[in-house]
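Case study B.
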Amino acid sequence: MKILVCISHVPDTTSKINFTDGNTKFDTNGVQYVINPNDEFGLTRAMWFKEKQGASVDVVNVGGPETEPTLRKALAIGADSAIRVNTEAKDGFAVAKELAKVVTDGGYDLVIAGRESIDYNGGMVPGMLSELVGANFVTNCISLEVDGTNAKAVREIDGGKETVNTSLPLVIGGQKGLVEESDLRIPNMRGIMMARKKPLNVVEPIGANAETAANSFEKPAPKGAVKLVDADNIDELINLLHNEAKVI
Amino acid sequence: MSVLVYTESENGKLKKAALECVSYAKAIANDMGTSVTAIAINANDIETLGNYGADKVLNVKDDALNPFNAKKYAGVIEQAAKKEDSKVVVVSSSADSKYLAPLLAVGLEAGYVSNVVEKPSSLSPFTVKRTAFTNKAFANTEISTDVKLVGLSNNSFGLVESGGSASIEDFSPSISESGVTVESVDKAAGKVTIADAEVVVSGGRGLKGPENWGLVEDLAEVLGAATACSKPVSDLGWRSHSEHVGQTGKPVATNLYIAIGISGAIQHLAGISASKVKVVINTDPEAPFFKAADYGIVGDAFEVVPVLTEKLKAFKAQNA
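Model:
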């Protein structure tokens, strides 16, 4: 089985979010980048398939040279090779089109992406990719087993979960549950050394058009100070929630 | 040219998010000078859609569309959009709608923007405001394609009753094949989900162990609320992952969010920041959550929460 894991290069979850150039660009100053957490669960599940079922695992990112350390980290975790599509990730559709080319050229059976990235949260790349390459698609995936060309997946739904049967070729939108937090791997020194020698292939983009553009950004309005209520005066809290906030 | 809105239902009953999406579609249609067409799949109470602004309902009843299947549903909505020649299509932010929307976007060659929180600030260029960086910011996003697909964030626009009525038209689209079939659905009946809840009661490590979750559940029951938890609680296995709210868990955009024994890590606060009113109960007055909350009680959850639950019970009985 040939597996491709899509890796988004995103600001660490603790990052402060600021904008520059008249609020038109994300301020990367002082921001640490990581593998998108939803993608990391998928990558770790892919490593399980590699070790238990003899799969090959490649990782891919659509982005500039600055994303390469994130791909190297994925190699250090255990992926066999990396592909970087050398273009700015303009919007979900453009990224999906670039990825579709990689998937078709590489003949991948299983593509695992995160259900969404934690920067733009669009949640659209895996689904669009599945349509573009004509593969089956399961998102919010919290469990995945593959037997030959058959796959069984569990999808988180509002208020529960759903077990589905499907088959390869398949695109997964993964999240926590594919593996547990405690299964995530911190690259060790040997992994990091080996990652330096693994192939990281830079491919030129097909030049897919974006359909959407984030023209400007805003931060939420600053919040007023918290109103503290004495622990012995719960009636006051109920009064505030009823008469002031009007939520009960 | 009407604005098309997919009105999601469950067990034949329209969801609140469906009515919100119709209210939203009506506001766009008014600005565009056009009408609203709703598409309902295996829903029974569709007469009510007129009250929220639908002029017409395309009524699809087909056992092949039960249970939900993203590919088939996307195909049905695509046919409806083409039949109506709709240039704007609205869906909600439920798990199912977010599943089908990217497939629909490709089918309609529509630019898709999810997590939208306001009606378009401009129709030409078509520009909507959406959340980004897990609610730490908003992005004003332009859609440049002929057909636009808008995913409305739950609880962001609200319900607007217009008192109208809709004509109902039976619609029998062709149903596409899907390579995904549902084997089983595991869903607690009658339990309020985080996605649909007006109120969420959430517990953190301050509750000391899963055996103390009765506190959270009792309070949630009085309020008709969904229960949730912080990331450490789900990582420790005290509660299921499906309850984890925050940046890598579920986002919460509810009217009232009550956090008990949650210190307020930046990732947690990001995930719940779209909630309108936040209440924190924590023993530590320095907990970061107090900076993000509207109301706070510095106190021991084990003493405060049972009293709050009892007093709310009395309040609810009085105001019922």
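Chain B touches chain A through 94 residues (CB under 8 Å). The remaining cases will be described in the next quarterly update.
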